[in-house]
Fold this sequence. Notes:
Layout: H1 2-20, E1 25-30, H2 36-51, E2 55-60, H3 65-78, E3 82-85, H4 94-103, E4 107-110, E5 122-126, H5 129-143, E6 148-154, H6 160-174, E7 179-186, H7 191-203, E8 210-213, H8 216-228, E9 235-240, H9 243-250, E10 256-259, H10 262-277, E11 285-287, E12 291-293
Parallel strand pairs: 1-2, 1-3, 3-4, 4-5, 5-11, 6-7, 6-8, 8-9, 9-10
Antiparallel strand pairs: 10-12
Amino acid sequence: xxxxxxxxxxxxxxxxxxxxxxxxxxxxxxxxxxxxxxxxxxxxxxxxxxxxxxxxxxxxxxxxxxxxxxxxxxxxxxxxxxxxxxxxxxxxxxxxxxxxxxxxxxxxxxxxxxxxxxxxxxxxxxxxxxxxxxxxxxxxxxxxxxxxxxxxxxxxxxxxxxxxxxxxxxxxxxxxxxxxxxxxxxxxxxxxxxxxxxxxxxxxxxxxxxxxxxxxxxxxxxxxxxxxxxxxxxxxxxxxxxxxxxxxxxxxxxxxxxxxxxxxxxxxxxxxxxxxxxxxxxxxxxxxxxxxxxxxxxxxxxxxx
Length: 305
């Protein structure tokens, strides 16, 4: 009888240890692997998942919201323990929120803030898009001596990042009577598309004094178009502070960029996800601050993204 009781205790202890030693699996659904900033986000997230003894499964929506909805459904059907989501369309997240909620799976948004109220066991980790646009244009306006015409290159209009950054840029310009927006067009976050957009503006001889791009990739595309036209007079500003963006600051071709901490967002998203898996309370909105990068201080940021 004693032996039987001992065996039961040992089995119970073994089962308890096995349960506590479970390695959780996190499904990570990213909007587009090809985007420079998201590539940095992905690399850091892989490292942070490993550091926290979490398995990660990464999928690429390739900019397709329908595909991303299916990918999230697939994660749920596969039995992942949590999902980290970088949405293609911040207004199209409701089906994924409902699916995760119905399955009882924690869902953490990263980098792109969903435009819908989040239920329990869901959170956002990222930066304030409007603040990024405001900081960019305040710094650019100062370099312009608060005079001149501004063209805005927008990201994909399906994301709150593009809309909020653009609104903030316009709001700063509206405060200065000698400044105005004379062009505004989307290049969908892409360098090559920005080359085409800016080349068209130059071909039409638009009197542009500065270009505010919603991200570094489009700012670099603008610089490439200006270089092809042998135009070095137009100031160009980006957002993200990617290694490529910082290089253009260093070589004097980009006036400034706003540092968006990809590593900080990735690390924060994994940490919030782990806390939810451990049944801990988390803040619903976890903000990662921006900083302004200029030719004077770029060296401080070289190792940060």
